[in-house]
Write a structure and sequence with these properties.
Elements lengths: L5 H4 L1 H17 L9 H4 L1 H6 L4 H4 L1 E2 L5 H5 L2 E6 L2 E8 L2 E8 L2 E7 L1 E3 L4 E7 L2 E10 L4 E4 L11 H5 E3 L2 H11 E2 L2 E2 L2 E2 L5 E2 L3 H4 L3 H9 L15 H12 L2 H6 L11 H6 L31 H5 L17 H4 L2 E3 L6 E3 L15
Antiparallel strand pairs: 1-6, 2-3, 3-4, 4-5, 6-7, 7-8, 8-9, 8-10, 11-14, 12-13, 15-16
Length: 346
Amino acid sequence: MTDGCPGTRQPWLVTAVWVALAGVAQAAPPRPAKVTCATCHRAEAQSQPGTAMGIGMELPANQEALQAHPKLTVEENGYHYNLERKNGAGTYTVSDASGALSLPIKYALGVHNLTFVLEYQGSFYESMVTYYQKIEGLGITMGDERIRPHNLTEAMGRKVSDQEIMACFNCHGTGGVSQGKLTLDSLRPGLTCDHCHTGADAHMQALAGGKPAPVPRKLGEMAAEEMSNFCGQCHRTWESVVGLRLFGEKNVRFQPYRLANSQCFLGDDKRIRCTACHNPHVDLVREDASYDRACLACHSATQKTCPVADKNCVSCHMPKVLAAETPALFTDHQIRVVHAGDPYPQ
């Protein structure tokens, strides 16, 4: 009776061993969670992806405007434009009496207004027409109002340079440009933390490895002019607008340029920088009164400086302007005293 396996001789011993092993397994420390920006910056990581910068562009599966409007048409410059969505994909077609040219819609840049990037014969084109949320329809793309096409290719869109298309994908997405070349296979819509917070990825990797983590520079250290140039990498700097001679109402959408033209803009003053009014981690606040605190940071509430009102300052001093001959309305960031009939200031 003493021969055989231990379990046969002493079943109580087997039970005790299993109980002990189970206790050891339960006491084992949990595997460390993956370190992400949300590990320490939870609120920002939750809200930022839903902002306009966090979205940036729409790929075919998520082109909401075309889902809501599966067929859009417009006549411009003697050409007929038809955008149609079927089976989860969109098609961009331009036609006239000579025929038609159809291309798949792969990239829709923007959030509320969508301009399409098209590929044709090895080159990229900016679509001649844009979807505008205000009219829930198509219109000529901002900046292309003066183009008069002579054939279907020109009517389809404006051919863009390599430098311009890389800027488009770099500002509207992540992973689409690497070492000065397009890497569209790894393109992801919208901007991630590392796009603005240079070094964020290295910071996380160091933390995950239990090493000292270099902290990315805080944008809060920037004064007005430095931040204007920083944000202007995508929203256009004062120098780039002047250098490209982007004058007229179309430059109302280039906020760093317009803000720098304001009489109250002081390059070394943090009170007039972009983040004095806007938190880039949350969606744009559209209530005029919410910006009064920023105005009063310079214009003391105890010293009445405006004879018209003491609240909703931006409703007068930052007027809404149509961008050239389009239905797109922008807040003009050139802060000023506005008089009826004044021409648009350059």
